[in-house]
Amino acid sequence: MNPYVLLGIAIAFEVFSTSMLKASAGFTKLMPSLAFIVGMGTSFYTVAQTMTVIPLNIAYAIWSGLGTLLTTLVAILIWKESFNIYTGIGIALIISGVVLLNLKGPGH
User: Fold this and answer.
1) Which residue, 95, 79, 80, is CA-closest to 18?
2) Rounded to an integer, what distance in angstroms lies between the CA atom of residue 68 and that of residue 49?
3) Angle subtended at Cα 29 by Cα 70 and Cα 19, rounded to the nearest 5 degrees
4) Which residues form the domain of 21?
5) Count of other CB atoms within 10 angstroms of residue 99
6) Closest Cα partner for 57 from 24, 97, 22, 18?
7) How many CB atoms lie within 10 A of CB 16?
8) What is residue 6's predicted lDDT score, i.e. its pLDDT?
9) N or C: which end of the chain has fewer CB within 10 A?
10) Is the pLDDT of residue 108 over 80?
11) Would 107 be classed as within a structural domain?
């Protein structure tokens, strides 16, 4: 399987798991807590598989950067958390960092 497809799966599970962490209410609700554990385990396993092909710095930057961006969007759209100029600037800086890391390609 294409390593970037696996990385996308890892990101999706990370975003889902983080949302389940919020839903678990501090691990006081069983089902969201279990969903978090299974989802995050799957995310870590999948991102580890991508790192057999994609260099660590690239894979982790994409995984954490896009995970943060998408989790922020979930927080705003689903959990009705606030969005302000600092949130926007922070997201822009994360995306800029991921782009900069990828400019020279893997293994630079």
Assistant:
1) 79
2) 20
3) 0
4) 3-102
5) 11
6) 97
7) 20
8) 97
9) N
10) no
11) no
73 occurs within a structural domain: yes
In a domain, 44, yes or no: yes
For the entire predicted model, the pTM comes to 0.85
CB-based burial, 73-85: b 16+ in 10 Å, e otherwise: ebbeeeeeeeeee
Residue 54 DSSP one-character state: S
* 20, amino acid identity: M
User: How far apart are alpha carbons 39 and 107 in whole angstroms?
Assistant: 29
Q: How far apart are CA 79 and CA 25, in angstroms?
A: 13
Residue type, 90: G
Q: Two tokens at 35? A: 């969903």
Per the domain annotation, does 108 fall within a domain? Answer: no
Taking only the tens place, the pLDDT of each residue in 34-59 is 999 999 999 999 999 999 999 998 89
